[in-house]
């Protein structure tokens, strides 16, 4: 990957005392991608993201973020990398609009504050003090502060933890609109449906290593895995068949049911959760410390 790379990581390592938090991670993330990092608690996701942000030092490996080493990233580089902190640290007494305008001053070429407030859906709260915002609205403000500098890359660590389902979907729309504007987005998440809905590609990290990488719908051979065909017979008996050739099974069923509807017909492949749990279990089975 060349200029098209937003992130290139080779052999990244980080230890905390006796713990290998990141143990040889490679990542290639293209510009314009929405990239997810999944993995169990303690897998090394936050440590990896913090190294990409330049917030944490590494013990080994090569890291290039927007073509530069984050450990040496100057102000120009920092302005191109947007960070959404878990708690944005906005002063409680300032209003939303004041907070966003205040943060804009830190950047050489900030976006328009009103436009960013609209982008995150906080127009109606622009005059409210930040202490009066709900948790979800606070998170939107955190994102506004992450994008006010007009970043080329936005890093989000567990952005939707604690969101209700409606707020989560609204947040996905926000991420999608940023991606449509061309922002590269890297996010960690514990929500598999979020990874599936939002990311172009994802990496599963376990015990400091990447154990699988790819698009959510084809991860770890998911799309080619055995299918399960389920249907109900006319007498009400539920039937299940595992098969490598679901099309043939369905064709046979269709013929048997005279071309009419096969009652409660369903063809499924392993879900992202199925393959995720298998990937994590496989590594645990190898006795790798978490
Ligand atoms: N500042 C620190 N000092 C010592 N150990 C740390 C520190 N930060 C993280 N660790 C350890 O490094 C490992 C990886 O932690 P990290 O926070 O990167 O995991 P994570 O995948 O983000 O987990 P979670 O899903 O729980 O947020 C864990 O074993 C953790 O206990």
From TrEMBL:
EC number from the UniProt entry: 7.6.2.2
Topology of this chain in the membrane: Peripheral membrane protein
Domain spans labelled ABC transporter: 7-232
Alphabetic keyword roster: Antibiotic resistance, ATP-binding, Cell membrane, Membrane, Nucleotide-binding, Translocase, Transport
PROSITE patterns named in the record: ABC_TRANSPORTER_1, ABC_TRANSPORTER_2
Annotated GO biological process: response to antibiotic
SMART domains from the UniProt entry: AAA
Protein name as it appears in the record: ABC-type xenobiotic transporter
């Amino acid at each position: 990957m060349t200029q098209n790379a937003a992130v290139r990581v080779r052999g990244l390592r980080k230890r905390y005392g006796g713990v290998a938090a990141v143990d040889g991670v490679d990542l290639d993330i293209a510009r314009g991608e929405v990239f997810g990092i999944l993995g169990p608690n303690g897998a090394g996701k936050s440590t990896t993201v913090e190294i990409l942000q330049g917030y944490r030092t590494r013990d080994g490996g090569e890291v290039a973020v927007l073509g530069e080493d984050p450990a040496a990233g100057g102000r120009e580089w920092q302005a191109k990398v947007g960070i959404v902190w878990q708690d944005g640290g906005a002063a409680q007494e300032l209003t939303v609009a004041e907070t966003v305008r205040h943060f804009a001053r830190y950047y050489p070429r900030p976006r328009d504050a009103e436009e960013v407030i609209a982008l995150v859906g906080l127009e109606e709260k622009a005059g409210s003090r930040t202490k009066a915002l709900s948790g979800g609205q606070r998170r939107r403000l955190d994102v506004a502060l992450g994008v006010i500098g007009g970043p080329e890359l936005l890093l989000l660590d567990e952005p939707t933890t604690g969101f209700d389902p409606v707020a989560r979907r609204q947040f996905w729309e926000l991420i999608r609109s940023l991606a449509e504007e061309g922002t590269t987005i890297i996010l960690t998440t514990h929500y598999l449906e979020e990874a599936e809905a939002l990311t172009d590609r994802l990496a599963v990290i376990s015990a400091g290593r990447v154990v699988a990488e790819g698009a959510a719908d084809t991860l770890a051979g998911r799309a080619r895995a055995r299918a399960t065909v389920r249907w109900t017979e006319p007498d009400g008996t539920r039937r299940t068949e595992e098969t490598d050739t679901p099309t043939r099974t369905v064709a046979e069923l269709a013929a048997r049911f005279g071309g009419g509807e096969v009652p409660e017909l369903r063809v499924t492949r392993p879900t992202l959760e199925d393959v995720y749990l298998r990937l994590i279990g496989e590594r645990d089975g190898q006795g790798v410390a978490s």
